Amino acid sequence: MVKKIVKRGFASDNNSGVHPEILKAIESANAGHVVGYGSDPYTEKAGELFQEHFGRETETFFVFTGTAANVLGLSGVTRSWNSIITAFTAHIEQDECGAPEKFTGCKVLTVETPDGKIKPEMLTKHMHGIDFEHHSQPKVVSITQTTEMGTVYTSEEIKALADFVHDRGMLLHMDGARIANAAVSLKLPFKAFTTVAGVDILSFGGTKNGMMYGEAVCFLKPGISKDFKYIRKQGMQLASKMRFISAQYIAYFSNELWRKNARHSNSMALLLAEKIKDLKEIKITQAVQSNGVFAIMRKEVAEKVSKTYFFYPWNEYTSEYRLMTSWDTAEEDIDNFVALLKKELGI
After folding, report:
1. Are residues 276 and 249 in the same domain?
2. Do residues 90 and 124 lie in contact, with contact meaning Cβ atoms separated by under 8 Å?
3. Which DSSP helix (H) or strand (E) runs through 219?
4. Would you say residue 11 lies in a domain?
5. CATH code of the domain covering residue 194
6. Domain range spanning residue 191?
């Protein structure tokens, strides 16, 4: 028998459990038989919900993982001689084991950004060699919302990027692994900073916000990837029992569960930041706009505290650490963490 684990840490929102309403939805979908591979009423209903949130022309395809959503979504709109431009901190550069380059065949080009957010002027260095066969051809700019630094793009910032790439015949992709946290931070509906702002392809994630598994590739404009169903199948991401992904999204969107979960995790990050920002030897390095707190602290202090409340180093050279809150983070977790941190700091 596996010993029940009750303590929570700050390493990742992936480490949290599944929300009870999501589990109920999976259990409810388990009754009876339905046609496999997405030809079921759950998947039909989930697709309709995505259209309600992102526009009637939205085409949604469910996959198992966030990496698959990013890689296959990009594969659907690129050819091997294209390049994909993203922030140096982006998941498709740092955390997907080269999968975007392996499966798209494209070069991934990066820009340095202090807060994870790309600005149009940062892209100009890659805007050369157009129509010159000796150079890869820029095709997609990929942004992350919220960024890997916990910061949030405004709808105006996204619109400026969309205008920049569209003027050059390119497309804008959004890695929305934590898109719910961004919507709560911005106090905007999803559509306002995606479809309306000019995003073309969206990887929509719920796993970090209370779901069990299953992400969505959303093409927000018709005809962008008319052959994507074949790409998904070849990419080994066509779920035979897709209803168990789809049912989660029905529960996720119902009664704004996504918003409740994200609002809680964001508020816990703000509380955590407030309690540590004035501690000696602690320096918060990024604006706390979602559910992540980035802070510099002594390595020996971090290592001792993380034995009880696990978290990861972000930049080992600067002794910067990432503290992530989740939909199930409790104030007690934060109070106990801060008490231990103070003890190790000698306060």
Report:
1. no
2. no
3. strand 215-219
4. no
5. 3.40.640.10
6. 19-256
Number of domains in the chain: 2
Q: Are 215 and 207 in contact (CB under 8 A)?
A: yes
**Residues 129 and 80 grouped into a single domain:** yes
Domain closes at, from 206, 225, 256: 256
144 lies in the same domain as 235: yes
Residue 42, CA distances (Å) to 154, 177, 217 in order: 33, 22, 17
Using DSSP, state whether 49 is helix, strand or coil. Answer: helix
Cβ atoms 291, 334 nearer than 8 A? no
CB distance 60 to 190 below 8 Å: no
List, for residues 196-250, the tens digit of each pLDDT value. Answer: 999 999 999 999 999 999 999 999 999 999 999 999 999 999 999 999 999 999 9
Q: Beta partners for 59?
A: 219
Q: Are residues 121 and 164 in the same domain?
A: yes
Rounded to an integer, what distance in angstroms lies between the CA atom of residue 347 and that of residue 99? 45
Q: Is 305 left (phi over 0), alpha (psi -120 to 50) or beta?
A: alpha
* Domain stop point among 199, 229, 256: 256
Token pair recorded at residue 171: 């497309």
Are residues 102 and 27 part of one domain?
yes
Instruction: Say how many C-beta atoms besides its own lie within 10 A of residue 102's C-beta.
Output: 11
Cα 168 to Cα 62: distance, rounded to the nearest angstrom:
30
Residues 6+ apart with CB under 8 A from 214: 62, 63, 64, 206, 207, 239, 244, 245, 246, 248, 249
Instruction: Measure Cα distances from 164 to 38, 49, 170, 220, 275 in Å.
Output: 36, 30, 9, 18, 40
Which residues of the chain fall below pLDDT 50? none
Query: Where do the H-state alpha helices sit in 33-122?
Result: 41-54, 66-75, 91-94, 99-104
Domain assignment of residue 1, yes or no = no
The span from the CA of 35 to the CA of 135, in Å, is 46
74 CA to centre of own chain: 15
Statement: the pTM of the whole predicted model exceeds 0.90? yes
User: Tokens 């696990």 correspond to what residue?
Assistant: 310
